[in-house]
Amino acid sequence: MSDMHINKVEIIPIPFSIDIKYGDDIAYLILESIKSINLEILDNDVIVVAQKIVSKAEGRVVNLNSIEPSEEAERIAKEHGKDARLVELMLREGKIIAADNGIIITQTRHGFVCANAGIDASNVQGNNVTLLPLDADASARGIRDRIYTLTNKRVGVIITDTFGRPFREGQVNVAVGLAGINPIIDYRGKKDMYGKELRITQIAIADEIASAAELVMGKSKGVPVALVRGLDCCSNDDHGIYKLIRSEDKDIFLKLAKIYYSK
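Now predict its structure.
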């Protein structure tokens, strides 16, 4: 992907008036919601979609009452003041790498290092929780391809979730799946404004878009989708979220967490 040339970037909230259920056509509903605010989708738009509605549409919703905790889950839950059924789901979705003061850090099946394996009880009814999509890249490709079928427009799609960050307070939206966009802009080998060669700089553009989109989205706003317009970042190549996952040998936070938890 070439360097982006940006004049103006728009981040447009796309509200949904319905609660998503299993089997819903997310791409179609996105297009209908865009029409409802008198907009049309354009080539090179980036559609940012909250993981929650994707998980609901894909049936990744679990009632905690249906979960029978294992002995390991019971032990961890007792030690850290957690619901044993929730801990059991964490163990099924990945592995626990650290736990302290009621916080459980996991590494999911996808390779994400995050709290509680991305399991979330917000914006779901009753005693239900949502799990991350099994393959959020595939989910994003499905939405992208369906939008192209319905509109003949080529867009990028980013599926997001809210993650905490090592060494900093607060949470930000990050990409957990994507299609039609290269998640990293690599400036290595290019020159800075003083002619010095850049040796390290790689910008996680997918995470930057995800975080910016959250400004108009959010758990309590009824806005699970944002349209980002004005970025020249879409790509016809297939990319994946794996490009944003740091390998374990380079992830000092993951190493420290495992050392601490093993004590």
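The chain is about 30% helix and 25% strand.
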